[in-house]
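subagent[fold] <- orchestrator: predict structure for attached chain, return tokens only, no commentary.
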Amino acid sequence: MNQYLFHFTITPVQSFVSQARRTRDLWAGSYLLSYLAGVAMKAIKDSGGSIVFPAIDNDPLFNALYNPLSVDKDSLSASIGSLPNRFKAEAQDPATAAHAGDIAVKEAWHKISESALSIVRGRAGKSFTKHTLEMWRRQVCNHWEVSWIIGDDGALLDERKNLRNFFPEPELGEKCTICGERQALSSDKDDSRHNVVEWWKEFVNTFNGRRGYHFRKEGERLCAICTIKRVFPIKDMTKKAIGWEVYHNYPSTAYISAVDWLIELLKKAATDKTTKDAIKGFIDICNKADIALDEEATKIKAISDIIARHPEWKDIYDFRGDVFFSESIKNKNEFPIKDEYTRKELLSSLEALTKCADSKPTPFYALIIMDGDNMGRLLSVYSQRQSEISKALADFAGGVLEIVEDKYNGKLIYAGGDDVMALLPLNTALYCAAELRDAYLQAFNNYVPEIIQKAEGTISAGIVYAHMNTPLQAVVRDAHRLLDNTAKDLLGRDAFAVRVWKRGGPLITFGKKWKDPQCISWPDEIEMIKDDFKDNKYGSGYFYRFRELIDIMKTLSPEDSIKLLTAEYLKRRENRGLPDRHDEKIREAEERVKRLYALSLYPYQTYDEHGNEGIETKPNPDGLLFVRFLAEKEI
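subagent[fold] -> orchestrator:
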């Protein structure tokens, strides 16, 4: 019997995942979407079809759907979304197979939403009224749009998605504070701001607990869809909804920001009694203050390994992540403590802890988004090698978790095919992305070496370094823009682009190819320049002087720019370690300046008098300021 190809997709994708205030929302959105895609794949396979792309035979999440009772909450299938929302399948009767996938998605979503409803309704009590139930059912009923087309031309699927089957009615009343699209849940048809705010205050007080600080006490009013993502990790919820437990929580941006500092602190405490006593005192004050154990299920391997040897420190691993930041503790609305004397005690104890560590934790973390370059074109040009390409992508995705979490102390959000999203501490993010790029190339080289030989099969990255209090939705959206507009379009793919955000917005934008034509690894070079900066071979004053000279350098040749920069470098008192002999001093200074100048070169879009686009490479100070940021961990 003939087999017919068809393409299948579930939407919305970007909004469902990126509409997140907390990292747990972001993880839950990507995991739920991946789970629903797996449910559709299983239904198609059970109806006699097969999945052509991606390769799913060894995918842990897909295999869990056939044996959910065997899934451990610490397994890959319980923690990482690994299946894309869009896939290619084949069947003798593709319409029937696709319809089976459609029905399965809707039934699975109904089970998930009803499980969440049971949790929310049970904890809300009398405040959850008939009106609340009607609002919940209305919002979840038609959330997902499933589309498919029969044939091998995947481009037709994009055209099909534009033919909407329904258009949701606009929602009135007070909007959800996360998505801003749907109405926030409330108990009465009088959905005035005052009534909705009061309903949520009562709901949060009954729902939250010390071992589950699920909703903010102030300023959060969620719709049904965003509430489902927020409560999805709860143990009673997931076991009932999908058949196994997932993460009970997900590390906050504050916790990820503090990871490197916390590792160094715990390492020092292992051999230093003063630090050990400071940790015990801090834990005692936190417990006295009833600090939420909001990170109880968070696992960072390096910290877990230390805690395994020192179980008496376990609580410091469980407290909400912002307890390590004095500015957060001082925020009375966001950091509730029963009395102000205890708040002062906590601040004093944290100060003692930071003195032992000789530093404070940085309030910055990194979000990495990576995506394979020209994947659609590769699948078209190498149409006879799609099976091998799919295996290469599966092999790559299967190794991402170990790189992100075991080697670089990060937390993986999603790894499926050629897509990766992860949270990393500031110190390790760029190196982690570079190693993921190497793993991607190696996977292609193992299965389709001719693609690598033609300098194809590459991957690009967008990395946003953000203050822990920057709205997460803005960070996610910006990482996607950075990846698409800068790393791929402006830098020409096989590149990384970085942006540094303070709370007020982005300050530094920079990017490079992973390697230059002379095979210099730019992540390695940036690390070496950072070390030189820390060793006082460069200084902040010179980096800012470099920025002041940019306009002059744009009118000079590279050789003259380097002469100018070298003269400025030799004028500054902060240039240490230069040789005594004049000629050697000049030569060494020039070599140092050349490295900075090469780092600063950055492409700009230009337009001629006819409006034609072009690219011109010019010095940009953001490369140097990025190095300074990595070295000093602040802006």
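orchestrator: received. Logging for downstream: The chain has a mean pLDDT of 90. The longest strand covers residues 364-372.
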